[in-house]
Amino acid sequence: MEMPASPQYLPNRRRFSDPFHEFLYPENESLEDKAARLKREADAKKRSDEIDEMIRQDRIERKKSKAEVSVLLLGQSESGKSTTLKRSVLSQVQKSLDRVVCVCRCLTLSNVFIFSPEFQLLHSPSAFHAERIAWRAVIYLNLVKILDALSPEADLEDHDDESLETATVIITSNGLPPSAISETKIPNYEDYRRRLEPLADLEERLTRLLSCPEEDEAVRLPAKSATNGISGEITMTDAISVAPNGRPTPTIIIPSTNYSQSMPVTPNGSGSSSPIGSGTSRTKEVAIHTSTNWKKTFSLTRSKSPKSAHSGEIEGWWEDPYDPVHALNACAPAMLELWKDPLVKKRLREKRLRLEESAGFYLDEISRITAKKFIPTDADILKARLKTIGVVEHTFIIPSGNNKGVKWKIYDVGGARNQRHAWAPYFEDVNAIIFLAPISAFDQVLTEDPQVNRLEDSLLLWKSVASNKLLGNVNIVLFLNKCDLLQAGPKYYPFRAKLDAGVRLNEHMVSYGDRPNDYDSVSKYFKNKFAAIHHSVTPNKERELYTHLTSVTDTRRTATIICDVRDIIIKDNLRNLRLV
Ligand SMILES: Nc1nc2c(ncn2[C@@H]2O[C@H](COP(=O)(O)OP(=O)(O)OP(=O)(O)O)[C@@H](O)[C@H]2O)c(=O)[nH]1
Ligand SMILES: [Mg+2]
């Protein structure tokens, strides 16, 4: 509250035009009157200051009681952001179960994650399982699409724009373009093709079910923005569909081809100029708006009910003759034969397709996944790939010292280049950033720009985030992710983890020099490299960087890291609140 200034400081114009002037500053007031007026003014000022202070305190109190933490997950596409979010939610579930107390509740702002609605596992195990089975659709589709990679038609010859969009990964090879690599013929292929024919229809059906065309909410970004901009640059200039709240509308995509492909990469890290391959997907990528309730569509609980609310056992979907499981189940023997065929494996080796980078996981689980009563495990859900478009918000409450708990908002962004412009609006009110850099990708290139090495892109992106002034006071946690693919990862034939398989870092990063090509040296090198960039560009020299070597699909190892990170963020946030 501001008091009027004394008359002597008012410009003449004001004295004549101000109707209250005579009342506030009488012309011929006596000394006593003036003293009384000044006292009244001083009292009023004091009261006003007291009210201002009360308002300020009230604001602080309200802010404290509404203690809220916003965390932004950043990183290039396929760095593991959505998996980290799934992982965080899972560790919430696990922690809560361990304590056997209802400690938190997930709000329903996002439809994407199975655990969001009302924290069903704790309150209603049967409902939780019902949501879990909804992930079958995504897993089935991931499995069907990865089978494309096994097909001899998965050739590397067609270089149209669409195939460029869908190729995923490049690894070092003998320097020959993939098309020049000799190719093993698969005599049984026609037989496989005939027996797997129903999967083409199934793929289409699953796509339709997931994207719910009747809701017509699938969103595609303008193709124009797909490859423009410099790697790592975050701009707000590109067009994107915008929600009523002014923020971009989230969408998820099931990539049409989900496998890795070989291609020479030059030692300085930039990809060869040869166009890369091509996926041979039967369909384009499926874009699914996150408000599309695909889980509901696919949970098949509409007409089926849990056998027992206590056991959480669900019965029913396998009795539905139209359920996709029947087609999959019927094709399982052919799928298994195809995957186990030594000639197919040989061909994969020749083409340097790295299935273990993506949905290859499911190929070793064909029998289990195609079983009629298959219920996805946590690991299945963590591996299920849904590409994020836009920004997906996930909210839940974590109890803290005071009994009101802390509201957490986690924003999971799309990491592809044409998505990065959507990040900036979230920078203003974020408390912490978890930045993911998949360090196993040092020999790969971007799907959206095969000229760019993935790790180079991650480093540029990291620099851009670490130097951002808007984020100067924001805690940054760095996850150097996919460490399992560097060493002692899943032993998928024909490739083992990269370093074990002899892929050399110094062939892709000259600066690595002649250091040993083992996990300890490589991970230390990356830790130092990212830390050095942060140190040199951060606008806030006081900011501490928390770095973790992670494999976020590894349930056991990640749970502890997530809890540590959560505690760090909460502590810092509370400290900031006290400083207000
Ligand atoms: N082996 C292994 N796979 C991982 C790891 N982290 C993520 N993945 C897999 O990598 C794929 C991509 O992960 P996502 O979490 O969808 O990647 P994202 O960063 O959200 O990608 P966008 O949504 O495109 O930005 C998924 O199939 C994950 O299962 C990891 O630490 N190790
Ligand atoms: Mg994602």
TrEMBL record:
One of its GO terms (biological process) is adenylate cyclase-modulating G protein-coupled receptor signaling pathway. InterPro entries: Gprotein_alpha_su, GproteinA_insert, P-loop_NTPase. Mg(2+) binds at T388. One of its GO terms (cellular component) is cytoplasm. This is G-alpha-domain-containing protein. Transmembrane segments: none annotated. Keywords: GTP-binding, Magnesium, Metal-binding, Nucleotide-binding, Transducer. It comes from the Eukaryota. The keyword GTP-binding applies. One of its GO terms (molecular function) is G protein-coupled receptor binding. Pfam families: G-alpha. GTP binds at L382, K383, A384, R385, L386, K387, T388, N481, K482, C483, D484.
